[in-house]
Fold:
Amino acid sequence: MSETSNYRTDVTPIWCPGCGNFALLNALTKTVLPNLGIPNHRALIVSGIGCSSRIPGYVDTYGFNSLHGRAVVIAQGAKLANPELTVVAIGGDGDFFSIGAGHLPHAVRRNINLTCIMVNNFVYALTKGQTSPTTPYLQRGEGPFLSLKFYPPVDPVLDMVSYSVSTRASFIAQGIATDVSNLTWLMEEAIKHKGFSFVSVLTPCVTFNPPWLFKTIRERASYLKEGEPVGLPDSSAEQPWPHDSSNITLALKLAQTPVGEKPHIGIIFRGRSA
Amino acid sequence: MRHRLTIGIAGAGGDGVVVLGSLLQRLAASQGYFSQMPRYYGPQIRGGASGVKLSLDTTRASVPADIADIMVCFNWEQYAELEQELPLGRDSVLFYDSAPPKDGIVLPENSFQVAFSETSKELTGKTAAKNMVALGLLERILDLPESPSKGAAIEDEASALLERNGLALTAGRRLLSEFPFSELRLSPPLDAQAKVVLHGNSAVVQGAIRVGCRAFFGYPITPASEIMEEMQERLSQGNGVFIQAEDEIAAVGMALGASLTGAKSMTATTGPGIDLMTEMIGLASGAEIPVVLVDVQRCGPATGIPSKLEQSDINHAIYGGHGDAPRVVLAAYDLEGCYRLLIESFNISEYYQTPVILLSDQRLGQTTVATSSDLFEADYAVVERKRPGREHQEQYRRYAMTDDYISPMALIGDQGLTYQVTGLAHSEKGRPSFDFANNQRMHEKRWQKLTPLRDRDELVRVFGREESRKGIVAFGSTAQFVLETVDDLGLQDELSICIPELIHPLPNRLASFVGSLEKLLVIEMSYSAQFYHYLRSQIDLPSDSEVYARAGGMAFSRKELSGPVTKLAR
Structure:
C-alpha cells in the first residue's frame, strides 16, 4: 500500500501549503475510511464550492463536487435512493452557512443518516478573502483579514454550533484541524451515528486569516470530556458543569459561548439514533 | 339527438361546482361518453369564483364549445368573474338558483329559475346539497341512469357521495313539471365501454410509475402540485423515495443525487420553480446526469396568474441558465401525450444521460378528461441507461468518448468503478480539467449525443392535408384548439397542422414540414411569441409567415382562432 493509502486519487490538491484542508483530507483517507472499513465503492462524498469542496476529487470513493451550497440536498437524495452508501457532505462556512443555510434545518429535521462536515476557515478563501458568515467582528483597522483591512466585517458572526444545537441536529461535534487524532475520532463517531450528524472543523486559512486568529483559537480551545467540568470563558460568571453530551440543555449552554472566546472541541451533543 | 354537448357550471367556491362537474363527468364516463372538463378558479383558497365547462362527446374527448349548451349558475356575483371563460349564448339553456342582478346579465330565452338551494334546504336542512339537486336535473336531461351504482367504474368515494345524496338527486330529477329539453339529449356513446377519467397531472404520474420512476422530490406549487401529491401516494405504496423538499433547488438537487445511484428520478413544478432549478439543470447537463423535470406552465413573469395557462417557458426550457447546457425539451398537447411523453422523457433522459424537461400547462394539467383506457394498455418500450461492463474495471472512464458520444455510466455503489462527478470542466476520467481542447471536445460530446433525436419523426404529429402548402404549427394545449378550429371551419382538406412534441433539439420533420410551406401560421400563447422566434432562429421560414400570439390567462377559443386560421386558408 502506498503512503497515501488506497483512498487517495492521483489528483494533486490545489490548496496552499499549510492549509488546514490537508489535515482533513489525511484524516479521512488515512484513518477514518480505513478504520471504519468502508469499501471505496460504498462511500459517497458530496461537496459544494469552495476550497474544502475540492476534497471529493482527491478521495477515491464516489464523489460529487456539486453546486455552491447544495451538497447536503444531493447527499440526501443519494442516501435515500441507496441506503447502503456511507454519505458525507463536506463544505465550507460560506457553503453551509451562507448560500446553503436554508437546507440545513431541513436536513436536520429529516434526520437522514448522513454526515455533514463543515470546514470553518472563517473566510471566503477560494474567491480570495471576502467576509463569510463566520468572519469575526473586527474594529476598523484591526486585522489583517488582508482584503478586509479597510472594510472589516460589521455584522455579528453566525455561530454554527449554536445553529446546529438550536435546530436539534442529532449529533453535533466540533474539531480542530490541527489535532488530527481528535478530529479523526470525531468524524468516526459522526459517521457511526445513525442519523444526521454535524461536525464543525475549525481550520486555519494560511492565506487570508490573520495569524493571531487561529493562534487564539488553539490557545483557548477546551476539550470536552464526559463527566468532567466544561471550560468556560474568563468572562463567564457560571460555575463549570460536568459535560453530558446527551443533554440538549447543556449543549445549548455550551453553544452560547462564542467560538472566539472558548472553542469547545469534542462531542457537544449526541441524541438518539434515527 | 346530439353527438356533443357542453355544460357550464358557475358558482362560488363551496357551492360544489367541481364536485357536481366531476360526478356528472364520471357518471357519463361510466356509460361510455368521452369528455373534457377544464376548471376555472381564482386566487382564493376557499370561496371566490369556481367554474367548470364539461364537454360530453360520443366519439372523442373534444374541447368544450366556446359557449355552453347548458349553463348552471349558483351565484351571479361570482359568475361575473367567470364570464369571459364561461360566456352565455343566446341559445344556451340556463338554470339558475337565485334571481340575477337587475342590470348587466342578459338572460337567454331558455332561462329557468330552479330552486336548487331551497330544495336542498327542505330535504336536508342545509343548502349544501344544492349541487346534488342540480346533478339530478342534469342526469334527467342527459338521460343518465337513475341509480349511479349501476354505472361501472365509479370510484367508491364518488359512489358513496351519490348514495348519501339519493334524496337530493331524486328531488332534482323531479324539479320541473314541464320538461322541454328533449333536444339536449345525447346520442348513445360510440361504445358503451366505461371511460377512465383523469387529468394531465395524473397522467404524468401514471406514466412515471409505468416507466419505473422510483424517486420523486417536489415542492408545492400551483398548478403542478397534483403531480407531487399523487406521486407521494404512489411511491409510498412500494419501494420508492418521496420527499417534499424545502424548496425547488433542494427538490431537483435530491433528484440528481438519487439518479446517480441509479434510481429513475424526477421533479415537477411550474415557471417560478423552473427558475430556481435552473442552476441544477446546467449541472445535470454538464455532468451528464439523467433527470426528468415536468413544467406545468402558468402565466408569468414572476408570480403572474398562478391558476391560468400560458406557453411562455419555452425560452427558459430550451436556453435557461448560463453556459452552453444542452437539454431535451418535450411538450405534450393532450392527455395521452402527458402519459406517453413522460415515459419518453425518462427513456431519453436515461439513454442520453441528460436532463429532460416535459412541458405541460395548467389547461392540460388540471383538465379532467374521460377517455379510453387503451391509453394505458399500449405497448411502450422502456429504455435503461448504458452501464459499464467488466472490461471497464480498473480503468473506468466515466466520460469516455464513444462513437455515439454516450459513455457507460456507473451507478454510485458499483464496485470497482468509483469516479468523481463535478460541475467543473472535466476530462474523460471525470477529473477537473482546464485543458481548452478537452473543454471543446466535451461540449461537442454533450451536444452531438442528442443529434439522433432530430430523426424521431414520430414525435412530430401532422394532421389535415399533408400536401397542403399552407400550414399551422402549434404545440401544447393550444394545438387542441387549433385542431378543433380547423375542424369546425371544415378546413381539414385545405390546411396542414403540425404539432411538435419534441421541441428541442428541433426535429427534422418539423423543419421539413415548415420548409414545404408557402404560408406558415404559428399560434402560441406567449406575448413575445417565443416559439415563433425559436423556429426562426433554427430554420428558414417561408417569406409569408405569420404568428398569432398573445399573453396567457384565458384559453384560446374557436371564435378567436377562426380569424387567423381563415386568413391563412384564403
User: Anything to note?
Assistant: The domain at 20-270 of chain A is CATH 3.40.50.970 (Rossmann fold). Chain A has one domain: 20-270. The interface with chain B takes residues 9, 11, 39-42, 44, 46, 49, 56-57, 59-67, 70, 73-82, 84-85, 102-103, 106, 110 of chain A (CB under 8 Å). Chain A has a mean pLDDT of 91.
